[in-house]
Amino acid sequence: MKVSFQIKLFISLVLFFSGLFVLLGVYYYNDVSHQLYQEMSARAKIQAEEIAIIPNLRQSVTDKDIRAITQFMHKVVAHSDASFIVIGDDKGLHLFHSVHSDVVGKTLVGGDNADVLQGKSTITIRKGGLGISLRSKAPIFDDAGKVVGIVSVGYLTSYLDTITLGKVINIFIAAVLLLAALFIFSWFFTRSIKKQIFSLEPREIGLLVRQQKAMMESIYEGVIAIDSASRIEVINQAARKLLGLSQPTRELRGQTIGDVIASVPFFAKPTMLESDTHDEICRFNQLTVIASRVRIMLEDKLQGWVITFRDRNEIDSLSAQLSQVKRYADNLRIMRHEQLNRMTTLSGLLHMERYDEAVHYIQAQSEHAQELLDFISSRFSSPTLCGLLLGKAARAREKGVELIFDPLSRMSSPCRSLAEAELISIIGNLLDNAIEATQRAALPHDPVEVLILLNKRELIIEVADRGIGIDPAIGDRIFERGMTTKRSGDHGIGLYLIASYVTQVGGSIDVSANAPRGTIFSLFIPETGNVQRPVVTLEDQTYAT
């Protein structure tokens, strides 16, 4: 028979609290017993030491006057709650016993007199003539300071256990009444819980929670769920990472969204109540994001909202990288188009049987191209990098700009600290910027000088142009995302990407003026990770405008 969740929860609560009361009872019993033993130990010790210093008793013990001791001790026993009081001499023989008077003259029982006869007070639990007892013994000194007797004050453990049990019974009666009240509370509590969880079984609820958690953490976008009072209910790891939040999720839960994200119109209550929104560009703290907001409705009542957002910069970076690939493909198309034009011209000359002119044309066209091809293919081992450099050189020629490679350029092996795609992006962006800056300068255009040198210590990339230079107004911000002086197109990402790639591998960038005009970009990328340079240095420059 399948038991309902309400019954299972009720039984679980009853069993749990019953077990808890049993454990608490055992603990309380042991604790009360321990405290009682400590209290009685202290009481016995005080009584023994006080009796031991009574002058009349000290003198009677010294004289071993049993009658005087007995008369005096009966008065003391009448005012004591101890189970027994015993007086012994320095030989360990009874001089007085408050319960058994017939043991006078016999040896003290227990074997714990040695330390007392040495002048020390003791507290022990031993078996004596009356049974097991907690007792304290104190030495009796004569006027000369010599131990002449022993005072023993004790409480039977059976007496202590009776006191403890009486206290526990009182607590047990109260616990039974409390447990009965708990049964009633548990029954109504389980009924209320069942209504709130829509009669779902715990296993089903657990599965839903695990599915939600896995789904939230698997989402690449930041996700925040807030209630109708704008308090955070759920926030995933991506959201915390994007917003730069170091607090764990449990600490963020319950905070208002305004405590986590600086106030923006996106979170204004009238705006959220008005309508949902999708792919809205917002500023969350210091991050530009693309955000969406959807309401949570339950039984036609607003319960809150779900906000999803993603970093706009990542989309821009991806766009810039795709643009770089597109430019690379364009370079190849330009080379193909240029080659087709040359082949068409050569074909025409051959058809007209102007062989001498065809030979001169081939020599004129191929001499520089072959020289450049031979230089690049012999100095650089990466086919991708060779293709990029040849394509950029061809594109520069179409725009009236010449690329000149430094004779020291050489990269016979891959750079270990940079991926090839990152290297292509860095060199491609530097060359594009240099070509465009040169093209915007006054005629005639000076060539763009390029140095790419990989040694055992570092990769050096230097691109020098004599273009329009860098505007001093933005000289300190040229590596910021979106910063550009270009008038059209998808710009403002290239230098940001360059700085990001170089910084990630511990490299540095030096930017200096190229007198009389233009700019020199010098990149130093460590090959072994031991190069120590400032990340970005803007040297003293006189920029052309």
UniProtKB/TrEMBL annotation:
Pfam family, one: PAS_8
SUPFAM superfamilies (alphabetical): ATPase domain of HSP90 chaperone/DNA topoisomerase II/histidine kinase, PYP-like sensor domain (PAS domain), Sensory domain-like, Sporulation response regulatory protein Spo0B
Catalytic activity: ATP + protein L-histidine = ADP + protein N-phospho-L-histidine
PROSITE patterns referenced in this protein's UniProt entry, alphabetically: HIS_KIN, PAS
Residues in Histidine kinase domain copies: 334-529
InterPro entries, sorted: 2C_sensor_his_kinase, HATPase_C_sf, HATPase_dom, His_kinase_dom, PAS, PAS-like_dom_sf, sCache_3, Sensor-like_sf
Domain PAS: 215-247
Subcellular location(s) of the protein: Cell membrane
UniProt enzyme class: transferase
EC number: 2.7.13.3
Membrane topology category: Multi-pass membrane protein
Keywords from the named record: ATP-binding, Cell membrane, Kinase, Membrane, Nucleotide-binding, Phosphoprotein, Transferase, Transmembrane, Transmembrane helix, Two-component regulatory system
Main subcellular location: membrane
Transmembrane segments: 7-29, 168-189
GO MF terms held by the record: protein histidine kinase activity
Domain of life according to the entry: Bacteria
PANTHER family linked to this entry: SENSOR PROTEIN CREC, SENSOR PROTEIN RSTB
Protein name stated in the entry: histidine kinase
Organism: Kosakonia calanthes
Lineage, opening ranks: Bacteria, Pseudomonadati, Pseudomonadota, Gammaproteobacteria, Enterobacterales
